[in-house]
Design brief:
The protein is α+β, with helices and mostly antiparallel strands. It has 26 helices and 19 strands. Strand 15 and strand 16 form a beta hairpin. Helix 3 runs antiparallel to helix 4, helix 7 runs antiparallel to helix 8 and helix 14 crosses helix 15.
Length: about 750
C-alpha cells in the first residue's frame, strides 16, 4: 500500500474507530433504544413495516388515540429512503440502530469533505468531523432519529451549495436539491430551516453575488418541493391538530444558561431541575462538545469567507436555542416561520455543527501562527503552562462556588483546566523547523480527540436494550382475546413511571417488582406507544400532534368518554379507574389488565340526530347519562327527530390500516357512527355509492343510512397527499434529468480513433 493511499485511509479508519468507541454498547449486544427510540421510532417502524407487508400506503395510523394521520407526522420518515431500507432489511429494532450508524458515518463524511473543500488540513478536517458526528450531543440524538438523520446531511448540503455558488449551473443546483430533499424527508423541519439559513450564508460568502444565492436558494426550494408529498399532509395535520390552537408552549425546553456552559464545561448543568418542572431542557441530554474543541472554535472565529457563515451560525443558532431564557430570541421564535416549531434547543444542533467547522479552521489558524513564529520549544514556555495549570486548580474552586454557578461547575473545573493545559502544551512542545505546523496540527487534533474519547468512556453511553428484550411480546396483550375489535386504555402516568421518565438514563431504571429495565419491559407493559407493535387500538397516545378535540376526552377520565370510544380493556398500575371493572391479568412488575362490559361497539346506529356546536358535543361526550348512545350531535348535516325504531345492528366486517367496512341492518333511517376520529380525507360509500361523511359527537365519523341491510365502507384518501405527489414526482424527475451523466463534447466514442 502506497504512502498516498495510507494518507487517504487514515482519516476514515480513525472515524470508524471513533464510531466503535462511541457506540461500544453494540459490542455488548445492546441496540439503540433510549427515550423516544423505544416509545416512538421503534413502534413507528413496526407500523411502517406492517403497512408495507399489507400493500397499503402508511397514511393513517388506527392504533393511536382514535386514529390519526401517520405520513403527515413528519418524524415518521415514511418516504425517507434510508428509513425504508433499514426497516425492510433489518426490522424495526435492529433497523433503527443501523439507520443511526449510517447517519453517523454520513455526518462524519460530509463534514470531513466540506472542510477539505474549504482547504482545511487533514488533521483539522478529521477533528471537525469527529467533533460533530462523534460528539456527545449527536450520540444522544440516537433516540431522536429524525433530528439526527436530517442533521447528518448538513456537510454534504453545504458542500453542494458552495459548489453551486462557485459555479451556478443547473446540475449543481440539482445536487443541492437532491441533498436538501433527503434532509427534508428525514423529518425534522426545524433542522431543515437552520440548514437553509446556513446554505444561503455559505453561498453569499463564497461569491458575494446574488446569482450564487439564487442558485443555492433555488436548490433549497427544489428540494422542499421534492418533499411536497409529506409537506402538504403535514400542513393539513397542523391545521387540524391541537397545535393549531396555540395551547402548546413553543418555547418549552429552551436551553438554560447552565446547560449552555456545559457545552464547553462538563457537568456545569448539574444538578438539573426536575423533568418538565424547571428551566432545563431534556430533549438533548448531553451537550458537551469538548473544552478544547470549543477553545479552538473561538480561535476560528473570523470574517473570512470561510469562517464568517459559521461564526454567524454558531452565534445565531445558540441564541435561538436559548429561547425563553433570552428575550430577543423568545420574541423571534414567536414570529413566522419559527413559531411553527417547539423545543428551541434543537437549534443547538446547528450551532454544534458550526462549532465543529470553526474548531477545524481554528486549529489550522493556530498551526499557521506556530509556523510563522518559528520558535523552539523553550522550557520556560512549558513551565509557564504548567504553573498556570496549577494556579488555576488552586484558585479556581472559590470562583466556581460563586452563587450564579451550579455545583457541577466545581466538579468540572479540573477537566477544563487540564484540557486547556494539554492543548497549550500541544501548541508549544513541537520543535521548530520544517514541519512544525503539521506537528502542531497533529498534536492539537490528537489532544482534542482524546478529550472526546475520554468523555465518552466516562459517561457510559446511551440507553439501550438487547434485541430479544425489545422483541419480547406483551403478556398483557396476549391476555386480550385475538381479533378484539374494541379499544384499550393504557395509562402509565403513575409516580413510579414519572420518576423513571425523569432519569437521564432510563435504561438503568427498573420497573417496580421486577429486575428488568424500563426499556426492556416497555412492550410487555404496553408502554405508549409500544402497543402499536401489538396492533392494539388504544385511546391514548404519546408524541405526535393530537387531532383536534380528542385529548380532552381521554384526559377527562369520564366513564362515558371511554365507553363511547369503545374501550373494553384498561391497563393500569394500581386500582382500576372504575369499580365495576373485572381483573383479567396481574403479573409481578407489570400493570394489571381490567375488562369493561359497558363499552359501545366500534360501529353502531342511532335514529336521532341534531346539529350542535363543539362545546355541547364535548359536554355530552363526558355526560354520565351517556346521551350519545342514542343521539348523534352533528357539526353539520340533516337532523333526525327520533326516537325512531329499535333493533338496528352494525358490525365491522373488515378493516385495514386506512379502510373500514361495516355491515348494518337498519330498522329505519338513521346515522351509522364509527368511534374513529373524523379527519379530512375520509370518504364513504353505501353499497358502493358515494356517501357524505359527517363529524359527529365532536370527534367521531357518521354517515346517514336508510332502512334495510347495507354495506358501508370508509377509505382514507387525503386530497393533500394526492396534491403533493405530483410536484414531488416532477421535482424528482427534474433532478434525475439534471444529474444524468452527459457525454463530453469533442470526445470520440470508445474504440473510435479521432478524426484527423
Amino acid at each position: 500500500m502506497g504512502r498516498a493511499v495510507r494518507r487517504q485511509l487514515v482519516p476514515w479508519l480513525g472515524l470508524l474507530a471513533g464510531m466503535a468507541l462511541v457506540h461500544r454498547h453494540l459490542f455488548h449486544g445492546l441496540l439503540i433504544a433510549g427515550r423516544d427510540a423505544f416509545r416512538i421510532f421503534i413502534p413507528d417502524s413496526a407500523f411502517l413495516l406492517e403497512a408495507l407487508r399489507a400493500g397499503e400506503l402508511p397514511l393513517w395510523n388506527p392504533y393511536l388515540r382514535l386514529g390519526q394521520p401517520f405520513a403527515a407526522t413528519l418524524y415518521s420518515q415514511v418516504f425517507y429512503p434510508p428509513r425504508l431500507l433499514s426497516v425492510v432489511l433489518a426490522g424495526p429494532e435492529l433497523g433503527l440502530t443501523l439507520q443511526h450508524l449510517f447517519h453517523v458515518a454520513l455526518a462524519a463524511a460530509g463534514t470531513f469533505l466540506l472542510l477539505r473543500h474549504l482547504h482545511a488540513s487533514r488533521p483539522a478536517s478529521l477533528l471537525g468531523a469527529a467533533a460533530f458526528a462523534l460528539s456527545a450531543p449527536f450520540a444522544a440524538l440516537s433516540a431522536q432519529q429524525n433530528v439526527a438523520s436530517a442533521a447528518a446531511w448538513t456537510g454534504f448540503l453545504l458542500l453542494a451549495s458552495r459548489r453551486a455558488a462557485l459555479r451556478p449551473t443547473v446540475r449543481h443546483t440539482a445536487s443541492v436539491a437532491l441533498v436538501a430533499g433527503l434532509a427534508f424527508l428525514a423529518g425534522s423541519p426545524e433542522t431543515f430551516l437552520w440548514q437553509s439559513l446556513l446554505v444561503l450564508a455559505v453561498a453569499l460568502t463564497a461569491r458575494r453575488r446574488v446569482r450564487a444565492a439564487v442558485a443555492s436558494g433555488a436548490g433549497i426550494v427544489w428540494g422542499f418541493t421534492l418533499g411536497a408529498l409529506v409537506a402538504l399532509p403535514a400542513l393539513e395535520f397542523a391545521l387540524h391538530s391541537s397545535r393549531s390552537t396555540g395551547r402548546l408552549d413553543t418555547l418549552a425546553w429552551s436551553l438554560s444558561w447552565p446547560q449552555l456552559l456545559s457545552v464547553a464545561w462538563p457537568f456545569a448543568e448539574l444538578p438539573r431541575s426536575r423533568y418538565w418542572e424547571g428551566t432545563d431542557q431534556f430533549f438533548i441530554l448531553t451537550l458537551f462538545l469538548g473544552t478544547l474543541t470549543c477553545a479552538l472554535a473561538l480561535a476560528g472565529l473570523g470574517r473570512s469567507r470561510r469562517a464568517l457563515p459559521f461564526s454567524l451560525g454558531a452565534l445565531g443558532f445558540t441564541t435561538l436555542a436559548l429561547g425563553s431564557h433570552f428575550p430577543p430570541a423568545a420574541l423571534l421564535l414567536r414570529l413566522p416561520p419559527f413559531h411553527l416549531f417547539r423545543y428551541p434547543v434543537k437549534y443547538l444542533v446547528g450551532a454544534a455543527f458550526c462549532v465543529a467547522v470553526l474548531a477545524a479552521l481554528g486549529l489550522d489558524g493556530l498551526a499557521r501562527r506556530a509556523r510563522r513564529g518559528g520558535t523552539s520549544p523553550a522550557p520556560r514556555r512549558v513551565a509557564v503552562v504548567v504553573a498556570t495549570v496549577f494556579a488555576a486548580l488552586l484558585l479556581g474552586p472559590p470562583l466556581a462556588r460563586l452563587p450564579f454557578f451550579r455545583s457541577g461547575v466545581e466538579a468540572g473545573l479540573p477537566w477544563v483546566v487540564l484540557a486547556l493545559g494539554a492543548g497549550a502544551l500541544a501548541f508549544v512542545l513541537p520543535s521548530s523547523g520544517p514541519g512544525r505546523s503539521l506537528r502542531v496540527r497533529r498534536a492539537l487534533a490528537g489532544v482534542a480527540l482524546v478529550e472526546l474519547a475520554v468523555f465518552h468512556l466516562l459517561q457510559g453511553g446511551t440507553g439501550g436494550a438487547p434485541l430479544e428484550a425489545l422483541r419480547r411480546p406483551s403478556r398483557i396483550a396476549a391476555a386480550i382475546p385475538p381479533g378484539y375489535a374494541g379499544r384499550v386504555s393504557v395509562d402509565l402516568s403513575g409516580d413510579e413511571l414519572d420518576e423513571v421518565n425523569a432519569t437521564v438514563d432510563a435504561a438503568s431504571a427498573p420497573l417496580p417488582g421486577e429486575g428488568g429495565s424500563y426499556i426492556a419491559l416497555s412492550r410487555d407493559a404496553l408502554v405508549p406507544n409500544r402497543f402499536v407493535e401489538e396492533r392494539l387500538r388504544v385511546f391514548e397516545g404519546y408524541g405526535a400532534p393530537e387531532p383536534l378535540r380528542i385529548e380532552p376526552l381521554y384526559e377527562s377520565g369520564a366513564r362515558a368518554a371511554f365507553d363511547l370510544a369503545g374501550v373494553g380493556y384498561y391497563v393500569r398500575r394500581g386500582p382500576p379507574p372504575f369499580e365495576d371493572l373485572v381483573p383479567v391479568l396481574s403479573l409481578p412488575g407489570l400493570p394489571t389488565l381490567y375488562r369493561s362490559d359497558t363499552a359501545l361497539p366500534r360501529a353502531f346506529v342511532v335514529h336521532a340526530a341534531r346539529v350542535a356546536d363543539d362545546e355541547e358535543a364535548q359536554a355530552a361526550f363526558v355526560d354520565p347519562a351517556q346521551p350519545l348512545r342514542h343521539t348523534a350531535l352533528l357539526s353539520e348535516g340533516e337532523p333526525l327527530e327520533g326516537p325512531g325504531c329499535e333493533g338496528s345492528a352494525a358490525r365491522v366486517t373488515g378493516a385495514g390500516l386506512s379502510w373500514v367496512e361495516v355491515a348494518l341492518e337498519a330498522c329505519g333511517p338513521g346515522y351509522l357512527l364509527l368511534s374513529d376520529s373524523y379527519f379530512p380525507g375520509w370518504e364513504a360509500t353505501l353499497d358502493e355509492a358515494p356517501l357524505p361523511v359527517r363529524r359527529a359527537n365532536s370527534v367521531m365519523r357518521a354517515v346517514p343510512v336508510p332502512t334495510g341491510a347495507h354495506t358501508v365502507r370508509f377509505d382514507y384518501r387525503p386530497l393533500s397527499f394526492r396534491l403533493g405527489v405530483l410536484p414531488s414526482a416532477l421535482a424528482l424527475g427534474a433532478i434525475a434529468l439534471a444529474l444524468l451523466p452527459r457525454k463530453r463534447e469533442g470526445r470520440p466514442p470508445s474504440g473510435v480513433p479521432p478524426l484527423a
